[in-house]
Structure prediction request, 452 residues.
Amino acid sequence: MTSAIVMAAGKGTRMHTAHAKTMHNVLGKPMLERIYETLKAVSVEKTVFVVGHGADEIKDYFQDKVEYAIQQPQLGSGHAVMQATQLKSEKGKTLIINGDCPLIQKNTYMKLLDFSNDYPLTLLTVKLADPASYGRIVRDENGNVSKIVERKDCSEEEIKINEINVGIYCVDNELLWKYLPEIKNDNAQKEYYVTDLVEIFISHGHKVGAISAEDPMEMTGINNRKELSMATKWLQEKVNNELMENGVTLVSPETTFISEESEIGEDTIIYGNVRIEGKCVIGKDNVITEGSYLFNAVIGDNNEIRSSRITDSKVGNGTVIGPWAHLRNDCDISDNCRIGNYVELKNTTFGEGTKCAHLTYVGDSKVGSKVNFGCGVVTVNYDGKHKFHTEIGDGAFIGSNVNIIAPVKVGKNAVIAAGSTITDDVEDGDMAIARSRQEIKPGYGLKYKNKQ
Prediction:
């Protein structure tokens, strides 16, 4: 069995935030969610979040997906690990992870887990061109870790070492709990450090291994807003590069944000300042222009989305949307439709070839094929207490400035005259006119304007 202890109790003082540091988003997801999803992907069966500051926020978000341990007060990384007592009786491997390191990829964890088969304690390390003030990894003649030396304590030879510890470990769980009591706090800070396990394991005759990650950026710990931005940029670039390698055109990749879960077909063109979040599935040969936002959207082929917002909705093929259209709450748009500027659709289906060009709201409606909406149409679906449904049949023509007060059914090939307020069903092929007859009062316009 593989378990994980994620240390997420710190206050994150340098973030200057009222929230838990590890709940800040990196490319649309909290740091802890990214770590949790990666751990699930490498088959970690039991995860314990060690929480302190912002504990309620973390628990409210993750609910019962993980187990929790409280670290209060925070007395160092070793002390954090000691709080995860749920794992005391478990066998197998345990990953020890910093909750502010969300960029570590699945493959890196897999390599660490595979490498740890030969070691009761394995460190994840990274090699830097300039290791600066970081502690160096010192290896023996067999390549095993012999010690970690802090920069201030390095000899002339040790200071040349460019491999550093990043604070991520894989350890035999039974040995972990056997040796945790040996960690002491006899240091200036009076804290317990998990790094002491290296010396403790070696003193008991155990080999300690280390495997170096390929990309140092994966190991980035996020402690302030600048580092948060850098992490987002790194992940954004990684996702965008993979999409471009697979045939997607990103006109301005540096201003385009796309979630890793999204799938985008070849020859789709995405302009700058576009955000695609959640689980989006976008087909081939689409054009998505500046300012568009998609969340959990399913888009077919050969569509044009012009500066519009589509959430939790589906669009077929050959449809033009926008500019400034808004589709939300389970809309389902068929092929060859037109949804124009300042049109909002909510929980609505459109049949093939239906057109709604501008300034219209259609909510809680089922609309057939080849229906035409004029300007300023509203399906009035809410009476202040309840939502009601509208149904419009194939080929219907809805004139401009029409209010359809649901529940109403408009039949096939029916016509509703402009300016009408419809409260009753309209049968197939009928015309509905519901407006006052115009009355002209000669001269009254000028008289009204001149009235004091």
Notes: Residues 37 and 106 are 9 Å apart (CA to CA). The longest helix spans residues 225-245. The chain has two domains: 2-219, 303-432.
